[in-house]
Amino acid sequence: MHKGDTILEVKDLKQHFRVSRKQTVKAVDGISFEIKAGETYGLVGESGSGKSTTGRSIIRLYQPTQGKIIFEGEDISGKMSNKALKTLRTKMAMIFQDPMACLNPRKKVIDIIAQGLDIHHAYSSIEERNEKVYKMLEMVGLSREHANRYPHQFSGGQRQRIGIARALIMEPDLIIADEAISALDVSIQAQVVNLMKKMQKETGAAYLFIAHDLSMVKYISDRIGVLHLGHMVETGTAEEIFNNPLHPYTKSLLSAIPHPNPKIEKTRKSFTYDYATSGLDYEAGYEHKITDTHSVLATDEEFEQFMANAKKSF
Amino acid sequence: MEDYKFLPDDFELIGDKQNIMIDEVAPSKPQWKDILDRFMENKGAVIGICLIVLITLLAIIVPMVSRWGVNAENTAIANQAPSSVHFFGTDYLGRDLWVRTWQGTRYSLIIAVVAVVIDVLIGITYGMISGYFGGMVDSVLQRIQEIINSIPTLVVLIILLTVMKASLTTVIVALIFTEWIPMSRITRAQVLKVKEDEFVLASRTLGAGNIFILFKEILPNIFGQLIIMSMMTIPNAIFYEAYLAFVGLGLTKPLASLGTLINDGFSLFQVHPHAMVIPAIVMAVLMLSFNLFGDGLRDALDPTMKEM
């Protein structure tokens, strides 16, 4: 995989859950985006907007209702061939939200990290396996003495690093970080995010970074997608989203970020956005491109209105 | 209280006596040692396990080495009270109750082992399949289980008795029909709880198969509860066997089971109470020991489950 190649392509992905005969929850309702090798794509939105569901559908913890997911040239939506399945399971990994729950409490750290190797028999001798685990432990800033301990003997940040080591052991090309830092202490968040950045530099893996902390997303992401009610309302590079937000939902998200400068923070106005009263229609809207990378979901009239609003504010 | 004055030596400066730079860290213990320590703290459980070992040894050794035969009748010494020759006395046919009681305990212990084996083999497997695969499989398995559960074991046994002779085998077959149901329910509930945990999802994203997830991820996490549960079913099984023998549906005379011994003694209870009281006490102690042991195991394996 070269830098710049498209590694993951999601086309019109829909993930619906049937709650009962009458009710279907449309968690994700037709979103499209792509991730290039080595880049970080941030996925933001309020809780319930379908961020986590998107991540889980892509790694096939759920059965996508509709749409196509193409990963490294293999179609991994619907029924997969053996080759596609193998590619998916070895080249895509996931980091989970809760460092307390994502490690099996009955397993030693060495067995947790080596799990991917064990499942895919990716070693010829036990020494080789252990050596790989030790190397991985050192890469994420733990020592080899930690290998024979149990997860409950570690702090939250350390556990999240074990989770990262587990995800990285198969040398994946895409890592889905499902709110990987939101359960951590703020001081530890920076530590873990920096570790993730460092690992990206070393391994060249792409990240799908799911989060609701916009300042963190701005810091780590190359491109950002804004999800709302299962729709991708706006997507673009980090600068485009932060400097030139078009969709009112994006604007409301950005206006909610506290500013470090207390003088500005005092005058900061956060405005609320409500889909029901906004008069927008996500179902009727389609993607309008502003630049090559920046696009927004809108109908033609809505788009004109967005652009007019954007000009006004300049 | 109001006019209390603090004196200069009320407070003492700890200062250098304590080095705050050094953390006192509890030495890490292996898990089995932790469990053993917690188990040892529980006096009742230790007494329970000692009694179980003692009773088991007696049940194995006494019928082997005693000079009295299990079924040797001698009416000349009928209905003797406990003495140094016959520790537990003799019954109405002059059979030595010391030997017969331990012989009967053997059957109780066999039933105990069988109950555990049934629990583990049928109960855990059934519960794990039902809970893990869910959906249609779960519905079908649960309905089958409910149908089986709706037939009382006693009815199953009486039906069995029309085709089989009353014996230990028949009792075991009857137990196989229904004994595993509580176990499979507990297993299913536990599996349902654990299978949505993030570490199971993590395993799945790495490509783990169902067998791997079931045995390597889920089972170790629910094993503690399952051991406890199977220990708790033992007293029931022991009592059930004795009860069947007492009413004449299980082991039949002249075989010595705790149930038949109590039944024998029952008819002469007002004249020679020892013939009934002693086997009853042995059975009660055995059941109590298993209960205490199970209780201690529960506390030791899973301290959070104490309130259940």
TrEMBL record, chain A:
Q: Does the record carry Glycosyltransferase as a key word?
A: no
Positions of the ABC transporter domain: 8-254
In this entry, which stretches build a coiled coil? none
Question: By its UniProt entry, which InterPro entries does this protein fall under?
Answer: AAA+_ATPase, ABC_transp_ATP-bind, ABC_transporter-like_ATP-bd, ABC_transporter-like_CS, Oligopep_ABC_C, P-loop_NTPase
PROSITE patterns with a match to the protein in the record: ABC_TRANSPORTER_1 (PS00211), ABC_TRANSPORTER_2 (PS50893)
GO molecular function annotations of the record: ATP binding; ATP hydrolysis activity
Q: Which UniProt keywords apply?
A: ATP-binding, Nucleotide-binding, Transport
Tell me which Gene Ontology terms the entry assigns under biological process: peptide transport; transmembrane transport
Q: Which Pfam families match?
A: ABC_tran, oligo_HPY
Similarity section: Belongs to the ABC transporter superfamily.
This protein is called: ABC-type oligopeptide transport system, ATPase component
Organism annotation:
Kandleria vitulina DSM 20405
TrEMBL record, chain B:
Give the SUPFAM superfamilies listed for this entry: MetI-like
Q: Which family does it belong to?
A: Belongs to the binding-protein-dependent transport system permease family. OppBC subfamily.
**Which ranges does the record mark as transmembrane?**
45-65, 107-133, 154-178, 227-251, 271-293
Any idea what this protein is called? Oligopeptide ABC transporter, membrane-spanning subunit
Q: Topologically, how does it sit relative to the membrane?
A: Multi-pass membrane protein
Q: Which PROSITE patterns match?
A: ABC_TM1 (PS50928)
> Per the UniProt entry, what are the Gene Ontology biological process annotations, in alphabetical order?
peptide transport; protein transport; transmembrane transport
Q: Name its cellular compartments.
A: Cell membrane
What UniProt keywords are attached to this protein's entry? Cell membrane, Membrane, Peptide transport, Protein transport, Transmembrane, Transmembrane helix, Transport
Question: Which residue numbers delimit the ABC transmembrane type-1 domain?
Answer: 105-294
Q: Name one GO cellular component term.
A: plasma membrane
In terms of PANTHER family, this protein maps to: OLIGOPEPTIDE TRANSPORT SYSTEM PERMEASE PROTEIN AMID (PTHR43386:SF24), OLIGOPEPTIDE TRANSPORT SYSTEM PERMEASE PROTEIN APPC (PTHR43386)
